[in-house]
Amino acid sequence: MAAGSEVYVLGGYQTDFARNWTKENKHFSALMRESVEGALQVCEIAPEEIESAHVGNFAAELYCMQGHLGAFFTEVNPAFSGLPTSRHEAACASGSIALLAASAEIEAGRYDLQAVVGIEQMKTVDSGTGGTYLGTAAWFEEEAEGIDAPFPKLFGKLGDEYDKRYGLNDEHLAEISKINYANAKLNPNAQTRTWYMNKDHAMCRTDDNPAIGGRVRISDCSQVTDGAVTVFLASREYAEKYAKGMGKKLSEIPRIKGWGHNTARLKFADKVAESANDEYVLPHVRSTVTNAMKRAGIENVDGIDGIETHDCFTTSEYMAIDHFGITKPGESWKAVEAGWLEIDGKIPINPSGGLIGAGHPVGATGTRQVLDAALQVTGEAGAYQVEGAKNFQTLNIGGSGTTSCSFVVGVD
Amino acid sequence: MSTPSAAEMRQILASRKIERVVVLGANGTMGYGSAALFTQAVPEVTFLARTKAKAEAGLAAAIKQVRSPTVATRSKTGSYDDDLASACAKADLIFEALTEDFDLKKDIFDKIEAARRDDSIVATVTSGLSINSLCEGRSDSFRKNFLGLHFFNPPNVIVGTELIAGNDTDPAVVDFVDAFSQIRLGREMVRTYDTPAFAGNRVGFKVMNECAQLAEEVGVLLADKLVGPYTGRAMTPLTTVDLVGWDIHRAIVDNVYANTSASTDEAYETNKLPDYMAKLIDKGVLGNKSGSGFFKKDGKKRLVLDPASGNYTPEEDIKLPDLRYIDQVAALHRDGRYEEGMQVFLNAEGEYAKKARGVIAGYIAYAFQRVGEVTETIDGIDRIMGMGFNAAPPSVLVDTIGAQGTVDMIAEAGLAIPSALADAAKTGEPKRFFHHRRINVGKFFVAE
C-alpha cells in the first residue's frame, strides 16, 4: 500500500445473532437500521459525517424478496439521502468484498469515511428451502440442484479429501466444535450461547447429532442466522481527527494492515483436481492468507495474535489451521491436540465462537470478523478478549473455498 | 465494584476446581435443568432425589430438555437416604434445588452439613427465601461457603442469573462462583442483596401481578394487550403468568407481600395477589400446567378467563376498545424506529393508553426506587430484567422514551418520581442510563 493510503477501522456494531427478526415481526429495514444506528452511537459519529456506504449481502432477493440493498442504507437516516451507495455479493464472502471495495475507495482518495454493512436475514424460510438457497453459492445446476443440504455435503468432501491425503480423525473436528461453542458462551451476541454442547455431544453418533453431509454432523455446522454488522472505515486524515476527538492516539486506532483476495474455480471437484500435486488442499485460500500477511509486513502466523476464521463447518476450520501455517500441511490435528486454538492458547482461533458458535448471517460474516478483530486489538472484546492482542487476522470464504478474503487488522 | 477483565476472571476460575457437583431435588424443574447445565462444564454430576427412581426421572428429563443423551455419560443418580452422605463428601459444589419450603431446605442442609468437606461450596437455587436465614446457626465453614445461585427457568435457555451472598459468605467464594458461572456456564451474573424475591422476581412479578389486578378491572385480554410486546417484552404478562404457573406466581408475590410493608415498599398493594386468583388456584387453576389459567386452549381456539365468574369466553367474542395506537407503535417498531414508537405510546390519547402507561411508569419507578435495596445500582436490575425476563430493562425504557418523557409518565400515573430520573430530566445528565454498548436494545421492542 502506498504511504498515506492506510485504511482505519473506527469500530462498529453487531446485532445479537441469537435474534429471530421474523419472530420479532420486523422488516429487513429494521435489521439494517439497528446495525447502522448502533455503530453511529458506539463510535460517536454523526450521520452527516458518512460519505459513502457499501452493503454486503448474499441473497436478500431469495430470503426477503428484496433487492437494491444499497438504497436501503439511505432509509436509515435523513442525512444519508443522496449518498453514493452500492451492494456487493460473493456468497459468504460478501461482507469482505464490501470491505475491500470501501477500502479501495479510501486508498484511491475518493472518500474519507465509509460505512460498510454486512447483512443477511435467513430465518424467513424453513431449513430445507434455506439449504437450497445456499446452494446457489455453488454451481447450482451441477452441485446443488435436487440435493438436500448441498453445502454440508461439499464440506464433508473437504474432510474426505484431507482424510485421503493425510488422514483425518473426527475427534479433532469434535474438539473444534467444542471450542467454538465454549467461546460463544462468552460472547453476548453469539447465537449459540445457550445451546447445549460439549465434546461428548459433538462426538455423539446418534440421531441427536445426525450426519447431514457425509462425515459432517449437525455439531460440525455453522448456523442459520439473522444478523447485520456495520463497521466504519476511514482514511488516515479522518482517523487522525477522530482519534483526537476521542482523546486517543492514532496508533490506538486499528488499521487494515493487509488484505488478501483470491477466487478459485467454482466447483469443488475442480478445485481439488487443481491442487492434486499441491501440499495445500485449497492453495488459493493459502495465497489469500499469506498475501494478507505479506501486505501487513508480517512474516508468518507467529506475528498474528489471534484469528477469526470461516468455520462454516469444522472441516473448513481444520483446513484453515494448516493454511494459516499454524502447522505443516495435513497436521492441523497437532494444533487441536496441543490446545493452541483456545482463547488462552498459542494462537486462538475464533474467540468470538466463529460461525459455528457466534452464527453465520452469510453476508454479515466478513464484517463481523473484522469488527471482532478490531475489538480484540483494542482490548474491547470483553469476556472473549485475547490478552494483549495487537494483530488479528480474518479469513472469510464464499462457496466451497471459492472466493477467499483475509484481513490483518492491528494496532501499532 | 469494577468488572474484572477476561484474564482476571480466568485467573479467579483457576483458583479452585469444580469437578464433582451434587444436585439435590434433581427431579424438579429447576433441579434437573440446573444439573443439565452443570454437565456441560464438569465431569461428574450426581442427581439426588427422595428416591433413586425420582432421580432417574430427573436425569431423563434433563436429557430431554437439552436434547443430548450425553448428559447421562457425566451423570450419576441416587437417593438422599442411600447416597447423599457419600456424594456430598466428594462434591466440590453442592446445589440445593428442593421445593421452596424453608423447613424442608433446613432439613436437607442438616444432612449436607454432616457430610460435606469444609471447603465445598453450597449453593441454593431459591428464588426468594432469605439466604441468611437459610444458613443461620450453621458452622463457620458452611456459612462461609454458602450462597444463593438463582437460575431462571429454564436454565438452559435463560442466561440471567442472580448471585446472592449471605453476611458471612467468603468474598473469594462469591468471586469464584461468579467467574465459574460466567465462563463455564455462560451465565449473565447479577449480584443482588438478600431481600425478598431478590431483584428480578421482585420487579418482574410486581408488573405481572399489577396486570393481573388490571385484568379484574378491564378484562384479561385487554390487560394483556395493553402491556403487550410493543411496550418492551417478548411475552405478554398474563401469558407469562400462565407459563410460570399460578402457584409459583402466588409463592413469589406472597413472599414479597409478607416480608415488606407499605412503609418499605411504595407499591406494596400491587404485590397483593388478587382474590380471584387465590380462589381459582384453590380450584386447581394453575396456568398451562393445569390446562387453564388466564387463557385456555379449545382445539385451535383460545379462550379467555373472566376473572369475576371464572368462566371462559372465546377470544373472538371479546370486543376490544379502539387500540389503533398499538398498531401505530408496532408499525414503527417493525421498521426499527423504537424511539418514535415509544413517542406515539407516550402521546396516545384515551383511558386505556393511560392505563398502559401507568403500568410501564410503575415498572420504571419501582425499579429505580429499589436501587440500593435489591442491587447496588440500576445496572443489576437492568441486566436481570433483560436477560432473566426478556423484558426491556428500565434504563433502556428511559433511554428510549427520554428522561423528561419518563418523568411525565410517572407523574401522570400519580407515582413518586425517583430522584435519579428527576435529576436526569432537569440536568440532561446522564444522557443514557444503559451503558452496555454491545447489547442490542432493539430486541426488547417486539413489533406486536
Please characterize this protein's 3D structure.
The complex is a heterodimer of chains A (412) and B (448). Chain A is of the alpha+beta class and 412 residues long. Chain A has 16 helices and twelve strands. Chain A has a domain at 7-125 and 224-245: Peroxisomal Thiolase, Chain A, domain 1 (3-Layer(aba) Sandwich). Helices cover 37% and strands 16% of the residues of chain A. In chain A, the strands form two sheets. In chain A, strands 1, 2, 3, 4, 7, 8, 9, 10, 11 and 12 form a ten-stranded mixed β-sheet that branches. In chain A, strands 5-6 form a two-stranded antiparallel sheet. The longest helix of chain A has 17 residues, at 150-166. Chain A starts with 6 loop residues before the first strand and ends with a strand. With 448 residues, chain B is an alpha/beta fold. Chain B contains 20 helices and eleven strands. In chain B, the strands form two sheets. In chain B, strands 3-2-1-4-5-6-7-8 form an eight-stranded mixed β-sheet, with helices on both faces. In chain B, helix 9 packs across helix 12. The mean pLDDT of chain B is 96. The chains are: A alpha+beta (412), B alpha/beta (448).
